[in-house]
């Protein structure tokens, strides 16, 4: 369960270019909720995600996951609860290390690192099995350095790494935006399968209105650092792309999204 | 013909001495490799940590401590020096190279303070090389055996460590700090510990050098960094760096080959003052090679380092 209470963040406070990124934002996700976050540029989507992951320190407000107030905790301590897939396929993996080593790092996310040898036969066969489910042939490339993989393969690997160990909260930061349409679909399908199978509480940021309609059980629209609209339950299943676009605040936004 | 013969005979006669020296200096090359390759943290601390280890070891030996205690003290101070560089970089967001220059410069004064003068003879004190069985103390064989044995132990330990869960986490910090942090790895702890370890290796090298040559000198580290880099490049060209064990072996192999090459140049009559210029040019060529080779195509991916 994720709870954001009155989150506030102002950049360049007191300067002419002061910018309110989060303006008392409140959001509550129950266990197993799959929320899709939309909003125009500067609405606060990235700031919200960064505040949850710990990359951004709030001016005021609280963030609580499963009863644990993580507001003051550094990024690496939040990893116990949170797994994240970045937009940039380069960011989510350690490129000079092998596929298996990356899987090991993900398996140990939020756990103590011991002085025992990292990779062993049991782990390798487990990784092979989990990667095989993607159907991309990654299971035969466990000893390949990640920088030799394509962007789609890297992003798929990031996803498998993130959903492993059933994190309390999965953050997806426009994770298919940098991929070609076909690969994006593969990654998106794998995402939905994993989220459904593991009942993961998920927050997915996207600019793709179709994704917002097709996936998840809730849509959250941000504007000026606040939640402007929340659609859930029965209503969510009936919502269409034009409905969503109609809610965007300014005319330019609507035009941009409709094109 | 005559030239070749005299060159060759003096080179051959120098091989054992040079080998002993290069095995000792292999540790400082490892101390340069770990920040550079494992942590993507270009670091200059070794230029100060090497004489620091030497000075601490020299003073401890002169005070009558056992050579092992002297080495342990050198390791500890070198570790602190490395940690300082990493801390300055992380806490004050100062570029890694500048942080290294600061620590290295400050260490010069500290080294002088530790010794109380610019050099100190420890001739006649017991050294670890005296303990090698069946070898006459003071001869290169004893040094080769002792330093070679230590090299094997250190290589085996490093090779074990960097494949453990902790070691994998440290390498992840070097490869992608953002990702490492998101996986719950404490980037500060890994960086400070890793650079500290490297400083300890540089100091170990200095301490062994003092026991080998019989005196400590504040200027003994002059140019060690560029020599170490040259050795590392040669080592990586020979054994490669694609696998962890190859990367870890490279500094030791590189040191052995590099110092034999230096010895060959000196035997051939190259004036010693020219040596630094030659070494510098060599490192420059090795670094420039990828971009020269691919000048028609797009230059390959640049090495990414932390700033």
UniProtKB/TrEMBL annotation, chain B:
> What domain of life does the UniProt record list for this protein's source?
Bacteria
Q: Does the keyword Membrane apply?
A: yes
| One GO CC annotation | plasma membrane
UniProt keyword Transmembrane, yes or no? yes
**Membrane-spanning regions, if any?**
12-36, 71-90, 97-116, 141-162, 185-208, 220-239, 248-269, 275-292
Any idea which UniProt keywords this protein has? Cell membrane, Membrane, Transmembrane, Transmembrane helix
Lipid bilayer topology? Multi-pass membrane protein
Supply one GO molecular-function term.
transmembrane transporter activity
The cellular location(s) given in this protein's UniProt record come to: Cell membrane
Protein name per the record: Sugar ABC transporter
- In which organism is this protein found? Nitratireductor indicus C115
């Amino acid at each position: 369960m994720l709870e954001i209470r009155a989150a506030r963040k102002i950049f360049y406070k007191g300067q002419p270019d002061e910018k309110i990124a989060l303006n008392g934002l409140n959001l509550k996700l129950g266990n197993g909720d799959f929320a899709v976050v939309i909003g125009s540029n500067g609405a606060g989507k990235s700031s919200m995600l960064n505040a949850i992951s710990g990359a951004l320190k709030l001016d005021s407000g609280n963030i609580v996951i499963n009863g644990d107030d993580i507001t003051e905790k550094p990024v690496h301590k939040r990893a116990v609860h949170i797994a994240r897939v970045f937009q940039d396929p380069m960011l989510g993996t350690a490129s000079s290390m092998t596929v298996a080593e990356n899987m090991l790092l993900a398996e140990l996310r939020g756990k103590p690192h011991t002085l025992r040898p990292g990779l062993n036969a049991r782990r390798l066969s487990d990784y092979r099995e989990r990667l095989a489910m993607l159907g991309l042939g990654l299971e035969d490339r466990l000893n390949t350095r990640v920088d030799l993989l394509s962007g789609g393969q890297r992003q798929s690997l990031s996803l498998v790494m993130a959903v492993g160990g059933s994190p309390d909260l999965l953050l997806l930061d426009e994770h298919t935006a940098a991929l070609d349409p076909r690969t994006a679909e593969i990654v998106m399908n794998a995402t939905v399968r994993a989220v459904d199978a593991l009942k993961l509480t998920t927050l997915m940021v996207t600019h793709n209105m179709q994704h917002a309609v097709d996936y998840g059980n809730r849509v959250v629209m941000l504007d000026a650092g606040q939640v402007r609209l929340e659609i859930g339950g029965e209503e969510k299943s009936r919502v269409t792309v034009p409905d969503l676009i109609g809610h965007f605040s300014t005319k330019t936004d609507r035009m941009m999204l409709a094109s | 013909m005559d030239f070749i013969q005299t060159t060759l005979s003096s080179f051959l006669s120098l091989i054992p001495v040079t080998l002993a020296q290069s095995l000792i200096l292999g540790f400082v090359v490892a101390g340069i490799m770990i920040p550079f390759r494992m942590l993507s943290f270009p670091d200059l601390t070794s230029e100060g940590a090497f004489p620091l280890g030497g000075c601490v070891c020299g003073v401890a030996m002169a005070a009558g401590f056992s050579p092992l205690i002297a080495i342990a003290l050198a390791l500890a101070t070198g570790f602190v020096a490395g940690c300082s560089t990493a801390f300055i970089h992380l806490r004050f967001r100062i570029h890694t190279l500048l942080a290294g220059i600061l620590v290295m410069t400050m260490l010069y004064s500290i080294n002088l303070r530790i010794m109380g003068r610019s050099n100190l003879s420890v001739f006649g004190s017991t050294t670890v090389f005296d303990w090698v069985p069946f070898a006459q103390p003071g001869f290169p064989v004893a040094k080769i055996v002792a330093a070679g044995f230590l090299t094997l132990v250190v290589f085996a330990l490093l090779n074990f460590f960097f494949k453990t869960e902790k070691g994998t986490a440290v390498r992840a910090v070097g490869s992608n700090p953002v990702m490492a942090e998101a996986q719950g790895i404490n980037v500060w702890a890994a960086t400070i510990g890793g650079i500290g370890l490297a400083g300890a290796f540089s100091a170990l090298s200095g301490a062994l050098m003092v026991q080998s040559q019989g005196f400590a000198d504040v200027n003994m580290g002059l140019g060690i960094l560029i020599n170490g880099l040259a050795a590392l490049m040669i080592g990586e060209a020979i054994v490669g760096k694609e696998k962890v064990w190859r990367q870890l072996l490279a500094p030791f192999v590189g040191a052995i080959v590099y110092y034999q090459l230096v010895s060959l140049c000196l035997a051939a009559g190259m004036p010693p003052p020219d040596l630094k210029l030659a070494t510098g040019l060599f490192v420059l060529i090795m670094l420039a090679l990828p971009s020269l080779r691919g000048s028609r195509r797009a230059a390959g991916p640049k090495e990414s380092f932390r700033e």
